[in-house]
Write a structure and sequence with these properties.
Elements lengths: L1 E3 H4 L9 H10 L3 E7 L5 E14 L2 E10 L4 E6 L9 E11 L3 E2 L3 E3 L2 E3 L1 E3 L33 H5 L4 E6 L10 H12 L13 E2 L8 E3 L5 E10 L8 H9 L7 H13 L3 E5 L7 E6 L5 E3 L5 E3 L5 E4 L4 E4 L3 E2 L12 E8 L1 H11 L4 H8 L5 H16 L3 E3 L3 E4 L6 E5 L1 H8 L5 H10 L3 E5 L2 E6 L9 H12 L20 H15 L3 E2 L5 E2 L3 H4 L12 E2 L10 E2 L4 H12 L6 E11 L10 E11 L4 H14 L6 E4 L6 E11 L2 E9 L1 H6 L6 E7 H7 L15 E10 L4 H10 L5 E10 L8 E10 L8 H19 L2 E2 L2
Parallel strand pairs: 12-23, 13-16, 28-32
Antiparallel strand pairs: 1-11, 2-11, 3-4, 3-6, 4-5, 6-7, 6-10, 8-9, 14-22, 14-23, 14-24, 15-22, 16-19, 17-18, 19-20, 20-21, 25-27, 26-27, 29-31, 30-31, 32-33, 33-37, 34-35, 35-36, 36-37, 38-40, 38-41, 39-40
Helix pairs in contact: 4-11, 5-6, 6-9, 7-8, 10-12
């Protein structure tokens, strides 16, 4: 934001120069980008009056002007075509200096001597983007009579400077001259003089000119309108033009310039419509119809979307709300009646429309950050006052104000003791109140609390801590002595779930598996590749609105496709063995359509191939869970999961609850991933593992008494589960079985077809006595008899 220092001083009384002001405002929290000098090298350029113009005898495009500068009349040759006798213009006399180190000397143009130069705004150092269009290629003509011979620097205020600020998004009130004047007044303890708005002459009734204002859209909270009649379009006074140009805005005509002036002054964007071009004498603030078009002020036809908020008359859009007005209702030299708009639009709506059109304006920049809805009326009334003051029109009595949700002032209670504790300094209560009052925050002491009334223009003040920050920055954070931190140091640690995850990873890496990480996004085709049925809950996935591509278009509900893709990639690149794991999230929608974030369910997935089999993977899982304190896992045959081989797959059960699955991948699925060898995958609910983990370790003394070892080799039917056999062995242990270890499964020669041989090593031990052969043999015999009865098992000879 550009802050002309002379404009700033209209609202505060100070002799401080730009550098002192900039330094002070920086220390109170306003970030100064630069200080810009308005005088780019202009010296000895004075006011002159053209008293005669005649054509050059030998040059069609040149004229000879006689210019009175008070002390003398100069002959000056010029190529400008916008001059008339009686015009007051800036004159660079002999010896004058102009920007770019140009020094004016006597010049001869085809036999005619020229004793100076008539200056344009560009030659006075103004940028092209702020020079009025009608003066871009001509001499700058002043708006009225001025004393001849006085310096143009004094008339146009070129001896001043402009301070450029970077305004943070939380302070939209500072995107205005009065906002920065308020900051300056508080910083330097100066009184703020806001404009006193009054209109002396109002005529007729607004209802004679405007029928109604309808605001059906929720994206407009307030629409305030007034009407000006008998409008006289012309140039603005010089003081207003210079203020606008210094602030980076191009003057256009008196009506538009006043709306821009007040926008910069108060921070409230305004717009003026040619009322005679508003169809039906009514205003409708609505969302655009899909396919509607509008020709904006920059003469670009724009296709509107239903998400765009527009100002419309009875038949068509006449402006894009908060962004830019329409060309068809712009103010022109023939305008006689003006409709003034002061509105409060939803910042998000304005930002999205502005972004979609690639059209950022002074108005959209302000609306995006949020604006006090009470400014709408203040700003429009100020425009009416200025129009009346410069004689640009007559104000029509009355207004139409659609105000849906009136913004009220709030009150915050501030504890002085809390200020002292947070800032670390002892500021007197009276000083705190003075600081807050200086910022326009009406404050008074009530008991032990300071009651602070928050004006509606301070959208950023929501709680006590915000007021403490205000006190701190006006006091000056640079004035607060740096002190070492005081407090009790505590040792931080990871949460339990993270510690269990780290421990799990360490266990798996110790068992020889490598950790992998895959994308959370997969292709919908992945579920076809792993043979998931169409009605399976795994297909209740969430689609991305803007995916990277089809292969990354949904959020995964299982890690198995990722694991198989990874194993396939390694297999097909010649890696002979692979043992990997991943702990990653799956994303489970709570309902469709999506109205809240999905549940992120953490999964442990393991995958192996090569010189590995089902029992290797089972052992990895057993050891991992065992070291996490999770025991007594049951493995139940699973034959209905189409991803896995029906005879080589098991569900993991604990206390009747399923916590995972492991097994050999179905041959059809393996072929889908171009894998010809057997591959084994396990997938466990890691959230349940975290719940079940018991990291408490209990120690017991080493046994004093020796163990006894018995081997048991049985021939059983092939479909008998070894886990069921182990259950029967344990059932007869009488508390003396220390360990049961399956060490062999065999089918083939000497074993009948449809049968298998299983061999166990059973360790017996008592912790209070030495076991005798007869009691161990008795237990062993009971086990054999139960197995024969339950499974028709036979001892293998």
């Amino acid at each position: 934001m550009l802050l002309p220092v002379k404009w700033l001083k209209d609202y505060i009384e100070t002799e401080k120069d730009a550098r002192i002001l900039a330094d002070g405002l920086t220390l109170s929290g306003s970030h100064v980008e630069s200080i810009i000098a308005l005088n780019k090298g202009v010296d000895n350029v004075v006011i002159g009056k053209i008293i005669d113009i005649e054509k050059h005898p030998d040059a069609d495009k040149l004229s000879i002007c006689k210019v009175d500068i008070g002390s003398e009349a100069l002959q000056i040759v010029t190529g400008a075509t916008n001059l008339s006798v009686g015009d007051y213009i800036p004159v660079a006399v002999l010896g004058s200096k102009l920007p770019g180190d140009i020094i004016i000397e006597k010049t001869n143009f085809r036999g005619i001597d020229s004793y100076g130069m008539l200056c344009s705004l560009k030659e006075l150092g103004y940028s092209d983007n702020v020079i009025p269009k009608e003066m871009k290629d001509g001499i700058f003509i002043l708006d009225k009579e001025y004393p001849l011979g006085i310096s143009i620097v004094d008339i146009m205020g070129l001896d001043s400077e402009v301070i450029e600020f970077e305004i943070t998004p939380n302070r939209p009130d500072c995107l205005s001259i009065i906002g920065m004047a308020r900051e300056t007044a508080a910083t330097f303890n100066i009184n703020l003089k806001e404009p006193q708005i009054s209109i002396k002459n109002e005529v007729e009734d607004i209802k004679n000119y405007l029928d109604s204002i309808d605001v059906p859209s929720d994206n407009c909270n307030r629409y305030y309108a007034r009407v000006i009649k008998d409008v006289k379009i012309g140039v603005s006074p010089l003081w207003m033009q210079t203020r606008l140009m210094e602030a980076g805005v191009r003057p256009i005509n008196n009506i538009v310039d006043i709306t821009n002036f007040v926008m910069l002054e108060y921070g409230e964007p305004l717009h003026a419509f040619d009322l005679e071009k508003v169809e039906g004498r009514k205003i409708i603030v609505r969302e655009a119809l899909e396919g509607e078009k509008i020709l904006t002020l920059d003469e670009v036809e724009r296709n509107l979307s239903s998400s765009d908020l527009v100002i419309a008359d009875a038949t068509k859009p006449i402006g894009i709300a908060g962004v830019m007005g329409g060309f068809d209702t712009e103010i022109t030299s023939s305008t006689k009646y003006v409709l003034l708009e002061g509105a409060n639009f939803n910042g998000k709506s304005v930002r999205l429309t502005s972004k979609r059109f690639g059209l950022r304006t002074e108005a959209s920049t302000r609306f995006e950050k949020g604006i006090d809805s009470n400014l709408s009326q203040t700003a429009v009334e100020r425009v009416c006052q200025l129009i009346e003051e410069i004689g640009a029109g007559t104000v029509v009595k009355g207004n139409i104000d659609v105000y849906k949700k009136v913004k009220e002032e709030s009150t915050i209670a501030l504890r002085p003791a809390r200020v002292k504790k947070l800032l670390g300094i002892d500021i007197p209560v009276e000083t705190m109140i003075s600081y807050l009052n200086g910022l326009g925050l009406e404050s008074k002491l009530e008991g032990e609390l300071i009651s602070v009334r928050i004006p509606t223009f301070r959208l950023d003040l929501e709680g006590e801590v915000d007021l403490i920050e205000e006190i701190g920055r006006i006091y000056g954070f640079h004035n607060i002595e740096s002190k070492p931190l005081v407090g009790v140091l505590t040792r931080g640690e990871k949460p339990r779930a993270r510690r269990i995850e780290d421990r799990t990873k360490a266990i798996l890496q110790g068992l020889g598996l490598n950790e992998v990480m895959t994308y959370s996004f997969i292709s919908p085709k992945a579920y076809d590749k792993i043979n998931v049925s169409q009605n399976n809950h795994l297909r209740d996935y969430i689609r991305l609105i803007n995916p990277l591509g089809e292969d990354y278009s949904i959020m995964r509900t299982t890690l198995i496709p990722n694991m198989l893709e990874l194993l396939s990639r390694n297999y097909n690149r010649g890696v002979e063995e692979c043992s990997v794991y991943e702990i990653g999230n799956t994303f489970i929608a709570k309902e469709f359509p999506i109205v809240e974030l999905p549940e992120e369910k953490k999964i442990l997935c393991l995958g192996v191939y090569g010189n590995k089999d089902f029992y290797y993977l089972k052992e990895v899982i057993d050891k991992t869970l065992g070291r996490l304190g999770i025991r007594d896992i049951e493995y139940i045959r699973e034959e209905n999961d189409p991803t896995f081989h029906p005879g080589r797959t098991a569900k993991l059960m604990l206390n009747g609850e399923e916590i995972g699955i492991l097994g050999e991948i179905h041959v059809d699925v393996a072929e889908n991933y171009d894998i010809k060898d057997r591959i084994y995958v396990g997938q466990l609910d890691f959230n349940k593992i975290v719940e079940l983990t018991n990291l408490e370790v209990k120690y017991k003394p080493l046994p004093k008494y020796p163990s006894m070892l018995r081997d048991l080799a049985l021939v059983v039917k092939e479909d008998i589960l070894v886990g069921d056999i182990q259950k029967i062995i344990s059932r007869h242990g009488e508390g003396l079985i220390e360990k049961i270890e399956l060490f062999d499964i065999y089918t083939g020669n000497q074993i009948p077809e449809g049968m298998k041989s299983v061999a166990y090593s059973i360790t017996y031990r008592s912790y209070d006595r030495t076991l005798r052969d007869d009691e161990v043999n008795s237990i062993q015999q009971a086990i054999i008899e139960d197995l024969e009865k339950s499974f028709d098992a036979k001892l293998r000879s």
